[in-house]
Amino acid sequence: MAKGKNTTIFFCQSCGYESSKWMGQCPGCRQWNTFVEETAVTGGRMAGVYDKNRKSAGRERPAPAALSEISLEEEDRMTTRMQELDRVLGGGLVRGSLTLVGGDPGIGKSTLLLQVCRNLAFDGREVLYVSGEESLKQIKIHANRVGEFNGNLKLLCENGLGLIEETIRHSQPDVVVIDSIQTMFHEDVSSAPGSVSQVREATGVLLQLAKGLNIAVFIVGHVTKEGTVAGPRVLEHMVDTVLYFEGDRHASYRILRGVKNRFGSTNEIGVFEMESSGLKEVLNPSEFMLSGKPEEASGSVVVCSMEGTRPMLVEIQALVSHSSFGIPRRQTIGTDFNRVNLLIAVLEKRLGLSLGNCDAYVNIAGGIRIMEPAIDLGIALAVVSSFKNKVIDSRLIAMGEVGLSGEVRGISMIQARVQEAKKLGFSTCIIPSVCAESVKEISGIKVIGVKTVAEAVAVLS
Ligand code: TYD
Ligand code: MG
Fold this sequence. Notes:
Blueprint: E1 6-12, E2 18-19, E3 35-41, E4 77-78, H1 83-88, E5 93-94, E6 98-103, H2 109-122, E7 127-131, H3 136-146, E8 153-157, H4 161-171, E9 175-179, H5 196-213, E10 216-222, H6 232-238, E11 241-246, E12 253-261, E13 269-275, E14 278-281, H7 285-290, E15 300-307, E16 310-322, E17 330-333, H8 337-351, E18 358-364, H9 376-388, E19 396-398, E20 401-402, E21 408-409, H10 414-423, E22 428-432, H11 433-436, E23 446-450, H12 453-460
Parallel strand pairs: 6-10, 6-11, 7-8, 7-9, 9-10, 17-18, 19-22, 22-23
Antiparallel strand pairs: 1-2, 1-3, 4-5, 11-12, 12-13, 13-14, 15-16, 16-18, 20-21
């Protein structure tokens, strides 16, 4: 195939699947009507993807290096001066890494990155912030809300990738932010900015810059209506770290979640609060999540969920009321709907509660999402409490996974969870009996091991 020749390829705009002909349904992600014709350039940098016969194009033969001889310096991790972000990144920002920050429009991605840039610039790093969305004046207005900046932070309003590349090669900064990848335009690719081939080509160029010049690069990616970054699989493969910034638009806190990380764990989350002067770190999320918990209300119980290595206490609320229609209504906010239905069935069968003609609503307070099975026992107790209209002691916390025969099964990291409960002043802790042995050293909190949900309910009365 001749170099530089344009070929037409159809891309699925949802998952990046490529095909030489148009298709109604994507075989990759089963979405309908997502194929769009794009021109792929076979001579481009990412051309190896399309042109399998391409040779090494006159490059020098590389010398393989021995792993044991590669030295690491302290400098290879930079702190962003934001503990929450550093933890999600696995202990700081790695030089030469490519990080994708995804999230809904308006969630605070630009704000977060401006703050990171400010901190890095104050530490004496050269930072380049490239915006394809806002003008210099608009960024200034945005930045003014966040605080003072020093001269190490340079701004560039540009969306032509060739020019951006030249600027980066010329000024050789330590950190580059690209806001956002969907507005970037690679001159070699004729399809519109934001399309799969544009996003892929642009990310390829940035990847080469990051690795070649040892620059830490952040890419901002907007999430599409379906909840994925445009061309997500393509992008997620290419970058080192994928972080999603999420949160309820109506609540002030935001959660930064690691989805992929080549340099650390992906279970970590960072919690931030959006204030009028930018994002503030929430170092103790349990306190934050429990603020506003009603004291004497039935159907409310506190559980402990692990978010990575950090325990987090949250309140579960249930409302069970008599159903006025034939089919009872079940609704959940913040947790798995099917799991709640299953727990309600377990309560009906194993505890003999007649929930069949009751509507049931379960809510994780604070708008956070928790899918961990360790909150099962809490959900079950909240439902029982609301059904019997009996208040659960507000100093009590419950955790454990519930099985189909009503048994309470063991959960991980029980010590950290009990410690967190103790730290926040809880007096009683209901845990699976198999875990009781490992927390018997912890004093100052009463620990009750239970084998079944029925036992746990008996503890309450
Ligand atoms: P922004 O960072 O522009 O979002 P994104 O880049 O993800 O699209 O955040 C915009 C929102 O954040 C906007 O609704 C206003 C709010 N905000 C604050 O509440 N306080 C602030 O200091 C700033 C800068 C923004
Ligand atoms: Mg923005």
